[in-house]
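User: My collaborator sent over this chain with a note saying "see what the structure looks like." That's all I know about it. Can you take a look?
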Amino acid sequence: MSDGPHRSLPMRPGWKKVAEYADNENFPREQVRDAVEAAVEKDWRKDISRALVSSIRDVLGGTTLFSDDTLRSIEDLRQTVSGSAMGNALLDHLACAIGGGMTGDAALQEAVVNTSVDQSARCARQVEEHYLRKSTVENSQDVRQRIEEAIQSTGFASLADRIVEPVSRHVPTVEKKDGVDDGVQI
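Assistant: Without extra context I'll predict from the sequence alone. Here is the result:
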């Protein structure tokens, strides 16, 4: 295990990259943040179909005056996300936004932001748990702290705009700095 606990992390590659960057102080906080953002976006693209987003928009764009009808329609969408924790979280957050009086794109935006934050926090806990088993307590706390800082500095609103209305099918990658002087300013 000379390469670090992130190698044996039973998570998607994006989150392994987050763990690798958070575990190495040579990666600046901005790169950890970018890795978190990329991992959440990849998770979204894998777990949330365009058809689901389209169906949500259809429900939110309906002419019903009663939020109960909208909530029932949102609950009817649960059958399309069976087995997807992220999909179910999206519908939960959407129901909360509607219950709080939000409508239309504002409700969808709020739900996507909250789903992304939840996904990040859930994955951060999973990384920490793995590091507790495979490394030292101090190291796991350091990794968790760096991931939490990255999550707090992530622009989830702009991420939500990008993942709900993708400009292209491009999935982000995180650039790894190879050179000694890459990004270093003196």
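A starting point for your reply to your collaborator: The two ends are 34 Å apart (CA to CA).
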